[in-house]
Amino acid sequence: MSPAREIRLNAFDMACVGHIQHGMWTHPSDQSSGYTSLDRWVSLARLLERGMFDGLFLADIIGVYDVFGGTPAAALRSAAQIPLIDPLALVPAMAHATTHLSFGVTCNLAYEPPYLFARRMATLDHLTQGRIGWNIVTGALDSAARAMGFAQQMAHDDRYDFAEEFMRVVYALWEGGWKDDAVVRDRAGGVYTDPAKVRAIHHAGKQFRLDAVPLWEPSPQRTPVLYQAGASTRGRIFAARHAECVFVYGGNLPETTRLTADLRRRAGTRPLRIFPLASVVTGRTESEARDRLDEYRHHASMEGVLAHGSASLGVDLDRFGMDEPVDASASQAIQSNIEALAAALGPGWTKRNFIDNAILGGRQAPIVGSPSQVADTMQRWMAEADVDGFNLSRTVMPECLADFIELIVPVLQDRGVYKTAYRPGTYRQKLFGAGDRLPDGHPAAAERWVDRASGQ
Predict the structure, then answer these.
(1) pTM score
(2) Share of the chain above pLDDT 90, in %
(3) Gyration radius of the chain over CA positions
(4) pLDDT cut 70: percent of the chain above it
(5) Quick one: which of 59, 91, 395, 438 could link to 442 by a disulfide (CB 3.0–4.6 Å)?
(6) Residue 227: how many CB atoms within 10 A of its CB?
(7) Largest Cα–Cα distance of the chain, in whole Å?
(8) Distance between CA atoms of residues 391 and 354, nearest Å
(9) Sign of CA dihedral 271, 110, 83, 361
(10) Secondary structure class of 12 (helix, strand, coil)
């Protein structure tokens, strides 16, 4: 019998008060309102490293949730991902306070100049010593488009076409501008970089034109670890080509199993790490966990659920009666959310179904139980859905993560399915056990430096 696969864990958070489980900030023990404090983020990073989490994944949006009722009022009242600060600014402080914890950050490529974005990510790769990843998103909010000076966002599939060209440009900047040994640091000769081993990147495409020498020397990973969360058909095509790690909704085991199998089939021999979204409520006993769930439920914000849900589905749920089937067929928002919700709630789902499913103010039910029961559930998902771990969204912070680390991590370790020490190396090495760089079969490899004379 083959040994059980190691469970990998990311803490899923956002630089805001209310993330996925809306309303939990009203709990008297919750400390999410300290989101503007570096001390709070450094403390979180140290906690996660003690629990040997693989990473802290920071979501982000550009724009406000203003679809519900045609106004941002519900999002503002419930703190549904607003107020929100830039997650990239938090990473260097957390990296400085830790040694092994890695960081995934969400950046929307639809509104980023590739050159400036590539430099920013290379900077983070240097400052974290190779512990940075990028969640590639193409956007889903018309409010974001308006904030950036456009009337509305591009159509869903057009966003992925745009993303393909963006990826070619940043791959060239990260992989092809500097030869590996370009930096010589010759003090005696007064030469820091060999000019013959640095070149300009030229690109003339439909969306971007570029003629630029990358300002940064090669960073530990060159290209950051690549995450992607689009589970629509078009999103899975993109993920199978580019992503190393994929986030899936996780609300339904059979649907997650289907998505995972499809992603692995599309990726072929290229390894993928697949993480479903999950939240956990635990206690020392099942009874204690159930009591805690009941306590948390009193703080769930249905207004926050509807504000967030309307924006991510691209449908104003305020326009539907409680028992009226919701039609999201014309949406240009997050198609995978629409598909996942239909799989979880069934065809013809209603606003009542949607609200009833939002037990803690999120769009899926939490895993609830004693440490051994939670571990059982996680192992079952690993075995049946062929996932690699979980993206754990917060409930009441920081007690939800402190409890997980104190109660559940030892159970997983005793079962031999969770690490007892970090592996050395960069984020990519820790995840895949290989080198710092993307494998040769990845599209980024085509952009690497090749000497025109020698072909090396």
Answers:
(1) 0.93
(2) 80
(3) 22
(4) 94
(5) 438
(6) 26
(7) 78
(8) 22
(9) negative
(10) strand
